[in-house]
Amino acid sequence: MKKKEVFLDKFHCKGCGACEEVAPKAFRLDEAEKADFLGDDRATMEEIEMAAVLCPTKCIEITEE
Questions:
Q1: pLDDT tens across the length of the chain (65 residues)
Q2: Cα–chain center distance at 33
Q3: What is the dihedral of CA 11, 33, 42, 18, to 10 degrees?
Q4: Of the N and C termini of the chain, which has fewer Cβ atoms inside 10 Å?
């Protein structure tokens, strides 16, 4: 099984909060209303993948090693 890596492009984040709503254990909005990735050990990969799909700016990228 390949390990998946999650990358968050904070520069393009619009602060909509969709990621935080779908995977609140993995994402939260910071003081600047930009998403923070808290780690993939906090939520299921399925939740993180759903957050990536719902992100309107597509700033969450998941790659396989």
A1: 678 999 999 999 999 999 999 999 999 999 999 999 999 888 999 999 999 999 999 999 999 98
A2: 14
A3: -90
A4: N
pTM of the model: 0.89
Closest CA to 33 of 45, 52, 19, 54: 19
Provide the token pair at 63: 């790659």
Task: Please name which of 25, 26, 22 lies closest in space to residue 56, comparing C-alpha atoms.
Answer: 22
- HSE value, Cβ hemisphere, 13 Å, CA-based, for 42: 14
Provide the number of structural domains found in the chain.
Answer: 1
Residue 58's domain spans which residues?
4-64
